[in-house]
Amino acid sequence: MPAKDTILIVGHGSREDSGNQEIREFTAQWRARHPEWRIELCFIEFAPPELNASLLSAARTSRRVLVVPLILNAAGHVKMEIPEAIEQARAACPQTEILLAPHLTACDPILAILKRRLRKAMGALDMPDPTTTGVVVLGRGSSDRGANGEMAKMARWLLEEGDHELVDLAFTGITWPRLEKVVQRHVLLGMRQIVVLPYYLYTGTLMQRIHRQVEHLRGQYPQIRFTCSEHFGFEPEIFALMDQRVEDLRAGVPDSRLPCDGCSYREIAHDLGHGHSHAHTHDHAHDHAHGHEHEHGHDHAHEHAHEHEHEHGHHHDHDHSHAHAHHDDHDHAHLHDHSHTHAKAEDQPA
């Protein structure tokens, strides 16, 4: 008889196996916390077991599959690839219910981790004065404005709930600003110390690159004291968020499912044939007030990012972005507003 529920953790996957191993260790610890749960793990890319095969296996051996992304931000992988894999599994196993939880998101538990990381970093400084110490929240860049916006929200919350006068946001790729530009601004504004807070769950090639970048910056600005915290890892808030995702799905809590699962606009974006490295935004706004005003915007952004690290102390970023927008506006009136945004982005692997 099939198991009642399978909980399928979906990790991003990394070219650096130490990052994948950390996710495997997280899964082992989560299983130990819930021995009554059937918990499986898969990766979107770079590491086995693979998402589609794992999801299909879980659907064939369970009455219900709860898909829980162990991912901080929702860009193309969460909004497009996971829902597409779920649709394929539903078609192959129509008798199995498959539910998709949201990613971890920008929320108070994640803010608590950032605040704890910041306190620890400040304690490592010779002069832990928040008025002369700049803070940079540094995360994975995306061509999805929603994913970048979640990070911006975290940086803003950190500013509002702390004593630091300068808390900025930077990205490791795809979008801007980059760490070097933000550090330059902090130095010009008179900061004597700078704390870099990586917004990453686990280690990987990008975490290694971040530490190299900070070393380069120490050489470039010898008068500034830099400190760089570690990735989030096995913080209790991450386990609690994963617990909550499962409990909410089982209880049918409103908004406990990712909106992109089954969304027709995601399917339209897919049908247009856009690949991994493209961002697609489909905004549909309809306003009525005595006549009609229909605004259909289809924005396609194509981004190509190439980053080169040189150990002699120079960091070069080459980004080439091309955006094409097509808008048709029709004026009528009565007021209804419907907006749907979907982005397909290939974020840089961790």
- What would CATH call the class of the largest domain? Alpha Beta
Mean pLDDT: 81
Can you count the helices? 9
* Shape, principal axes of CA atoms: elongated
The main pleated sheet reads as: 4 strands, parallel
Q: Which stretches are poorly predicted, pLDDT < 50 over at least 5 residues?
A: 264-349
Order of helices and strands: EHEHEHEHEHEHEHEHHEEE
Shape-level CATH architecture of the largest domain: 3-Layer(aba) Sandwich
As a percent range, the share of helical residues equals 25-40%
How many β-strand stretches?
A: 11
Task: Tell me what the structure shows.
This protein has 350 residues and is an alpha/beta fold. It folds into two domains: 5-104 and 235-272, Rossmann fold (3-Layer(aba) Sandwich); 108-228, Rossmann fold. 36% of the residues lie in helices and 27% in strands. It contains nine helices and eleven strands. The strands form three sheets. It has a four-stranded parallel beta sheet, with helices on both faces. α2 runs parallel beside α3 (76-92). It is elongated.
Which terms summarize this structure?
36% helix; Rossmann fold; 350 residues; four-stranded parallel beta sheet
